[in-house]
Amino acid sequence: MTFKIRLAQEKHIAQIAEITNQEAKYSAATVALKDEPVERWLESFRKYHDFAPWLVALAEHDDEKVLGFAKASPYNAREGFNWSVSLSIYIAQDHKGQRLGTALYTVLFKLLQQQGFKNVYARIALPNPGSQILHERFGLSQSGVLPNFAWKFEQWHNMGIYTGMIEKDSDKSAPSPLKSVSAVWQNDLKEQHYISSIVKTNNQV
User: Which stretches of 117-172 are assigned E, i.e. beta strand?
Assistant: First the structure.
């Protein structure tokens, strides 16, 4: 399968919302209990998309067709947490098992490293083997569990807390100022092979 990884644009946000709303109907990967409006996603995109990346996987010959997306968001509003981000990733139901998650995270982690981020965080409703394996593949490990923390599908779900460092050998000196997404994409990645991915379907995340 051939697809492209691009920075998300406003025209993609409705499909991003649709993908997560569809996921919410069938799984606890998102603990939303009702459809989230496009306006809410659009507001978040406009506020944060140049602080940390929002990425989409697009059909090879159709820049309008979103197959999946991944994004990083501020972990906390307080400035001391600026170098730590929270991760989210969702793949359209009919495109799971085609390594879109791996391709999206490969680009996302590269961008985060280039920007100067240090730490990543993900919250996963347990059990979710596919998501757990994907995050572990990129160096995150389960650092805790929030027991009975979300109610969905007539049961309580434990939430796994996954954390990791973007650079394992990073020192403890003061971090450098963060670069914007647009600056890093244009200067470091725009013409590199991260933009397009050719992946064989093989029942993986």
Answer: 119-126, 141-152, 155-165
What are the CA-CA distances from residue 157 to residues 21, 31, 127, 136, 150 (Å)?
Answer: 19, 9, 8, 20, 5
pTM of the model: 0.91
Domain of residue 19, residue span: 2-177
The strand ranges marked E within the chain are 2-7, 54-59, 62-74, 84-91, 119-126, 141-152, 155-165, 196-198
Count of the separate structural domains present in the chain? 1
- In terms of C-beta density within 10 A (0-12 exposed, 13-18 middle, 19 or more buried), how is residue 169 classed? exposed
Residue 91 lies in a domain: yes
Domain contains 47:
yes
Max Cα distance, the chain (Å)? 49
48-52, 61-65, 86-90, 168-172, range with the lowest pLDDT: 168-172
- Which of 31-40, 90-99, 141-150, 168-177 has the weakest average pLDDT? 168-177
107: in domain: yes
Mean pLDDT, residues 188-200: 47
147 assigned to some structural domain: yes
Task: Report the alpha-carbon distance of residue 173 to residue 191 in Å, rounded.
Answer: 32
pLDDT at 195 over 90: no
Q: What is the CATH number of the domain that holds 7?
A: 3.40.630.30
In terms of DSSP bridges, do strands 196-198 and 62-74 run parallel, antiparallel, or are they unpaired?
A: unpaired
